[in-house]
Design a protein that fits this description.
single chain, 215 residues, alpha+beta, seven-stranded antiparallel β-sheet, three-stranded antiparallel β-sheet, 5 helices, 10 strands, elongated
C-alpha cells in the first residue's frame, strides 16, 4: 500500500475542517465579528479557514475549539453534522483506478473500496496486514513466487512484509473491498473453495485459517 492513500486521507480530513467550523459558528448564532472578538483571530482569517482557502493550524484550531466548547479532535475528525455515516468521496488514482475511503477517522484499520484498472505487476513490501474481498471482476494476487486468482465473493489476507501485488486478472477492471492495518491487526476468515474453482488456490501465509476462497 503506497503513501498516496495516506496523503489523500489527510487532504480529506483537512477539507472537512472549514465546513465544520462554519456549521458550529452558525449553530451558536455567532457572526464572524463576534467569533473574532472571542478568539483574537481576524475576521478575514476566520472567513478563509471556513471557506477552505486557508489551511487550519494548531494555533488557530485551539482557540476555536475553546470558543465552540468542543474537543480539538471533534474539529479535526468528527463526522459532519454529527452524522455517523461516511460521506463517500471517490479519489481517482493513476492509470484509471478509483479509491473510495470508507473510514473517515485515521484509526488503526483503514477500509477502502477500490476499482483497479489493468496495469503491470510491481511487487512491493511494507509493514502491515491486508485483507481483500472481491466484489466484481477477477483479482490477480501475487505473493512472492506464488499467484492466486480470486473471483467475486472470495477473500484473501496476508502479511505485507512479503513481496506482493494485486490487480485485475484480465483486461477488465476489478472491484474490491480492501482493509489495511498494522501487523497483528487482521480479520479471521474461514471459507471453502469456490464451486467455480473446485481446486482451492492455496492457503495464504502468515495468518490462521485463511485462504483465497469464497465466504
Amino acid at each position: 500500500m503506497n503513501t498516496g492513500s495516506g496523503d489523500a486521507e489527510l487532504e480529506q480530513i483537512l477539507d472537512g475542517i472549514g465546513p465544520r467550523l462554519r456549521r458550529l459558528r452558525r449553530e451558536r448564532g455567532l457572526t464572524l465579528e463576534a467569533l473574532a472578538a472571542t478568539t483574537g483571530i481576524s475576521v478575514s482569517t476566520l472567513s478563509r479557514v471556513e471557506s477552505g482557502r486557508r489551511r487550519p493550524t494548531l494555533d488557530l484550531l485551539i482557540p476555536l475549539a475553546r470558543a465552540h466548547h468542543v474537543a480539538l479532535d471533534q474539529l479535526v475528525a468528527a463526522p459532519a453534522s454529527g452524522d455517523p455515516r461516511v460521506h463517500l468521496r471517490p479519489l481517482r488514482k493513476e492509470r484509471g483506478s478509483v479509491l473510495v475511503p470508507l473510514t473517515q477517522y485515521p484509526g488503526r484499520v483503514q477500509v477502502f473500496k477500490q476499482v483497479l484498472a489493468p496495469r503491470e505487476p510491481e511487487l512491493v513490501t511494507h509493514e502491515g496486514y491486508e485483507w481483500l474481498y472481491v466484489l466484481a471482476g477477477r483479482l490477480r494476487l501475487v505473493l512472492g513466487a506464488r499467484e492466486f486468482t480470486l473471483r467475486p465473493g472470495e477473500v484473501a489476507e496476508f502479511d505485507t512484509t512479503e513481496p506482493h501485488w494485486f490487480g485485475p486478472a484480465d483486461a477488465s477492471a476489478v472491484e474490491i473491498l480492501h482493509l489495511f492495518g498494522p501487523r497483528g491487526d487482521q480479520a479471521v476468515v474461514r471459507a471453502g473453495p469456490s464451486a467455480a474453482d473446485p481446486a482451492p488456490s492455496a492457503t495464504l501465509p502468515n495468518a490462521p485459517e485463511q485462504s483465497a476462497a469464497t465466504t
